[in-house]
From TrEMBL:
Protein's UniProt name: CGNR zinc finger domain-containing protein
Taxonomic classification: Bacteria, Bacillati, Actinomycetota, Actinomycetes, Mycobacteriales
Domain Zinc finger CGNR: 137-180
Originating species: Mycobacterium yunnanensis
Signal peptide as annotated in the record: none
């Protein structure tokens, strides 16, 4: 299933945001870290660059993380996404930028608080997953020592490991070593 470019980008942004507290401790620990995250995903609009804004983004991160946690319960996720759409007063409108000339949706004014813009766009991207019957694309890393989340955008939904800690490679090496240890030396 192919999603629009802005939906995929926003799903990845949501995933990375959630993982800022699930991998290597708190990584959204100040304005520089928040700016790096925002710039990395091209978030536009108002930035207050204060402690209240950082706290609001962390609160949003927790809400989005709960959606991943409950991804197997469609009714519950629908309730969470609807609540987020309502709380952010999402109002879709089409736009494009020089750096992204394709038409895409914005769901809040560039003057609205950062968390509100982020939350509205993340909720809408999650709504796209729900409408397509693709919530199973929201996963938690299958490595036993990792709590990172991932969004599986592969064609056949076969991705099992995050890309935050080389988990897939570590698990494959461990499985290889396990097989080698049990082989007959004959």
């Amino acid at each position: 299933m192919n999603f629009s470019h802005d939906t995929e980008l926003t799903l990845r942004a949501a995933c990375v945001l959630v993982n800022t507290t699930r991998v290597d401790g708190e990584r959204l620990d100040g304005m520089a870290a928040l700016d790096e995250y925002l710039d990395g995903f091209g978030w536009t609009g108002r930035r207050d660059r204060d402690a209240a804004e950082l706290d609001a983004v962390k609160t949003l991160r927790a809400r989005i993380g709960k959606i991943w946690t409950h991804a197997e319960d469609e009714e519950r996720v629908v309730g969470q996404v609807n609540a987020l759409l309502s709380d952010t007063r999402a109002a879709p409108w089409l736009t494009r930028h020089a750096e992204m000339p394709e038409w895409h949706l914005h769901l809040a004014s560039i003057h609205d608080p950062l968390w509100q813009r982020m939350g509205a766009e993340m909720a809408m991207s999650l709504a796209d997953l729900i409408r397509a019957g693709e919530l199973r694309r929201l996963k938690t890393c299958a490595a036993p020592d990792c709590e990172a989340v991932l969004v599986d955008l592969s064609r056949n939904r076969s991705r099992m490991f995050c890309d935050t800690g080389n988990c897939g490679n570590r698990q494959h090496v461990a499985a290889y070593r396990e097989r080698r240890a049990h082989e007959d030396p004959a």
